[in-house]
């Protein structure tokens, strides 16, 4: 039954769903308050300090506090903000879809409140890519376009990322993995935590008449209202693994702060229109229930059309999320898929762990005993649970720093350089840090190409760290969690300076897309199971069929037989022979003789700017430069008229 509360029409609300929802012409508020005997809804007009009204909420039969309030609305929103109150404690709704007060990144907010806002839920018609075709590109929304020469109008925002879609398309990636974009507390270390029965309670919420009122200017977004000497010196949690309101996009990442949710949705829609999937890092903190986590993931899928999540299976069991009816089309990145689940959810589970990264760093650097690991990754592909292959992640060295620094340089973090991992398996190529030596710079470029070749020719699902394709550096910082500055922001002027590396990445991604032999949906077999005379994959050393797995060996070669793979037009795939020499000396590789074909050099990482040597090779052997990778492609002898080069 409706009644009036100081000008607001109210009635008993419904206890599902939690948060704010529209029930006919009224806004329904529902919150779980275990251990509390009463709860009030505190309404504020936007930008005002004092409450417009305090409305008592009633407990349902399930113990959920609810109230329905008639408020003027337009497109699911109003001119009101709200908090919940129990006793003398005020806190934000953990299910809030939009949070106000944190519009400026890295600045202490004057207040934090939830907005009375209900986002529209739309039917998602976009079909994400198969995991076997996926090429992930990991980025930080703010840092991606905040830095020099980004060329976008709205730097460090969802809109800025949208402006970079043509670049992503040209590069050849088809999925982005975003570091946390929820409304996290980037200044959490400065806050005295508010204890309350519901997670997500921020500090600096309205505390009633006992607390001094902040200025009108402060409440309207002037975050510099506090004198400098009163502002605590705190680190910014740049990455975003912090206390958060997990249902709300981060407002500071929006160009239009009033419409952060709409801007995030537009970004997702435009990425989808370009054929690019959207994956989110979703790591929960605090006393968060599994039902809350499930509700959260469903919200991002139903409201924004997100295609997948990187989650912790220790927090949220895989069978719980993968088996959820509302998430049946969603993919999940987790550290390990249990054996008993691997056949139940094909094309939905990706193993995301550092095994490939660490082992292939060792191999590329020339460490002993790594050829068996390389062999595994060159043929390993699980249809039911693929693996993410990457050489650099946001936590650790960038690709360029991996071959510019022997040790971490984290002094800027203020922890005496002791934070971050000591085990990077990096190599500075002869000089630590920036250098003017052409010889060292040429070697570093070759090492980066080698790393990219190993990653993009392996059978896993590849992932690039944003900016690695043009040699971004974090100045040797391998733990830049608190660096909201040029250390973490991408320097887009490097695209022009390191054009050769950018073109090599584009070339490899195009090669991978055009040749399905590099994106198989199952483990490749070392047997001739179709009777064509060649195994599906065969493993070689400097001599055909004689692979050397001894600890001191740093050389290997692999032949992919195209007779086992058909292209979309039903024609057979080409044969490919890839050779790796990670030794610091040159080595001669004898090439297996296949009847009726000769070989074309596709690329040689030691060949400078030439991605593809337009030559045919019909010799019996080829000399590989030290620390280099060479890929050959078969060409039928009957159609070759070019001059062969031995």
Distance between the termini: 91 Å
Strand order within the widest beta sheet: 13-14-17-18-19-20-21-22
Question: Average pLDDT across residues?
Answer: 88
The CATH architecture classification of the domain at 136-183 and 265-516 is Alpha-Beta Barrel
Number of distinct helices: 13
What does it look like?
- With 646 residues, the protein is α+β, with helices and mostly antiparallel strands.
- Among the domains are: 136-183 and 265-516, Glycosidases (TIM Barrel), CATH 3.20.20.80; 525-639, Golgi alpha-mannosidase II (Immunoglobulin-like, Sandwich).
- Helix content is 19%, strand content 22%.
- The chain contains 13 helices and 30 strands.
- The strands form 6 sheets. It has an 8-stranded parallel β-barrel with strand order 13-14-17-18-19-20-21-22.
- The longest helix has 20 residues, at 438-457.
- Mean pLDDT is 88; it is low at 190-232 and 641-646.
Features:
646 residues; alpha+beta; TIM Barrel; Immunoglobulin-like; eight-stranded parallel beta barrel; six-stranded antiparallel β-sheet; 22% strand; elongated
Question: What is this entry, summarized?
Answer:
The chain is α+β, with helices and mostly antiparallel strands. Helices cover 19% and strands 22% of the residues. The model is unreliable at 190-232 and 641-646 (pLDDT under 50).
């Amino acid at each position: 039954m409706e009644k009036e509360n100081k000008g607001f029409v109210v009635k008993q609300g419904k206890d599902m769903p939690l948060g704010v929802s529209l029930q006919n012409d009224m806004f329904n508020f529902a919150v779980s308050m275990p251990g509390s005997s009463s709860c009030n809804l505190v309404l504020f007009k936007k930008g005002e300090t004092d409450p417009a009204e305090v409305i008592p909420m009633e407990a349902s039969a399930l113990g959920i506090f609810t109230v329905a309030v008639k408020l003027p609305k337009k497109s699911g929103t109003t001119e009101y903000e709200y908090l919940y109150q129990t006793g003398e404690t005020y806190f934000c709704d953990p299910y809030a879809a939009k949070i106000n007060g944190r519009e400026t990144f890295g600045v202490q907010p004057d207040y934090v409140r939830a907005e009375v806002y209900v986002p529209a839920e739309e039917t998602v018609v976009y079909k994400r890519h198969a995991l076997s075709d996926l090429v992930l590109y990991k980025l930080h929304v703010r840092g991606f376009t905040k830095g020099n020469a980004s060329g976008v109008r709205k730097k460090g925002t969802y809109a800025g990322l949208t402006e970079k879609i043509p670049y992503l398309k040209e590069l050849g990636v088809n999925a982005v993995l975003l570091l946390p974009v929820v409304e996290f507390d980037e200044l959490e270390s400065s806050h005295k935590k508010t204890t309350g029965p519901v997670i997500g309670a921020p500090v600096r919420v309205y505390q009633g008449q006992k607390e001094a009122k902040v200025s009108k200017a402060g409440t309207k977004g002037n975050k510099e209202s506090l004198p400098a000497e009163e502002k605590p010196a705190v680190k910014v949690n740049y990455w975003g693994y912090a206390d958060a309101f997990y249902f709300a996009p981060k407002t500071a990442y929006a160009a239009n702060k009033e419409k952060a949710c709409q801007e995030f949705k537009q970004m997702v829609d435009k990425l989808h229109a370009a054929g690019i999937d959207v994956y989110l890092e979703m790591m929960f903190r605090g006393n968060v229930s599994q039902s809350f986590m499930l509700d959260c993931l469903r919200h991002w899928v139903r409201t924004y059309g997100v295609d997948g999540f990187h989650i912790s299976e220790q927090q949220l069991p895989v069978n719980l999320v993968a088996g959820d009816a509302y998430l049946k089309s969603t993919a999940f990145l987790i550290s390990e898929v249990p054996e008993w689940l691997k056949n139940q959810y094909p094309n939905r589970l990706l193993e995301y762990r550092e095994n490939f990264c660490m082992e292939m760093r060792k191999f590329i650097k020339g460490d002993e005993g790594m050829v068996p690991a390389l062999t595994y990754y060159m043929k390993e592909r699980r249809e039911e649970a693929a693996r993410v292959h990457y050489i650099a992640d946001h936590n650790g060295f960038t690709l360029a720093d991996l071959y510019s620094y022997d040790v971490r340089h984290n002094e800027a973090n203020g922890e005496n350089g002791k934070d971050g991992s000591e085990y990077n398996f990096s190599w500075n190529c002869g000089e630590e840090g920036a250098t003017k030596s052409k010889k060292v710079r040429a070697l570093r470029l070759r090492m980066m190409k080698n790393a990219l070749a190993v990653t993009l020719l392996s059978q896993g699902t590849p992932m690039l760290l944003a900016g690695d394709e043009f040699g971004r550096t974090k100045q040797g910082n391998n733990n830049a969690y608190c660096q909201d500055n040029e250390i973490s922001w991408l320097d887009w002027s490097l695209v022009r300076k390191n054009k050769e590396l950018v073109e090599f990445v584009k070339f490899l991604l195009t090669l991978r897309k055009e040749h399905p032999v590099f994106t198989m949906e199952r483990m490749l077999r070392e047997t001739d199971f179709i009777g064509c005379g060649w195994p599906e994959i065969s493993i070689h050393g400097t001599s055909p069929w004689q692979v050397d797995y001894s600890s001191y060996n740093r050389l290997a070669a692999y032949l992919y037989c195209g007779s086992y793979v058909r292209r979309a037009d039903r024609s057979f795939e080409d044969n490919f022979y890839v050779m790796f020499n990670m030794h610091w000396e040159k080595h001669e590789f004898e090439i297996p003789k296949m009847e009726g074909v000769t070989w074309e050099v596709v690329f040689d990482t030691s060949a400078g700017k030439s991605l593809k040597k337009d030559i045919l090779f019909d010799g019996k052997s080829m000399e590989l430069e030290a620390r280099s990778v060479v890929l050959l492609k078969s060409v039928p002898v009957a159609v070759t008229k070019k001059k062969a080069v031995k």
